[in-house]
Fold:
Amino acid sequence: MKLKAMIGNCEKEIEIKRLEEGLFVEIDGVTIDLDVSEPEPGTYLMKLPEGTFEAFVSDEGPDGECEVTIQGSTFLVGVFDPKRLRGAKKGAGLADGRIEIKSAMPGKIVKIIAAVGDEVKLGQGVIVVEAMKMQNELKSPKDGTVVELFSAVGDNVNSGELLAVIE
Structure:
């Protein structure tokens, strides 16, 4: 999975692959062998060859960012899937009309968070797709109402497949 992260004003390109022995992580071309565990919600232990580090992650804010604290330093971090942002413009969450939510990769629907007719806010979870043993919560790109759902729990979906429509 290729992502972009904004850490303060600095943009980083990140690639993450889940392996049996941990995670393959590449940040701006630098490979890191990483083993991550979450002993409690919002607390992560990252085991690196240099040692083990503890990270505390706040709940996601309204702009999709969270505060991450590592060794006493706190950073404002936003992680974005560039595929989902193609064609999006600043303020897209305020757009009128229909907006489609599509699967970024092949996977399986494991949870439907919002039903047809539910009011959703920008950034609110709508549907969860599991791909490569990772669960990806797809969020509403704007305030609106869920007007259509095209999958049910247990359905397999393809990359780019339409999952929901928000108006």
Summary: Helices lie at 82-85. The mean pLDDT is 81. The two ends are 28 Å apart (CA to CA).
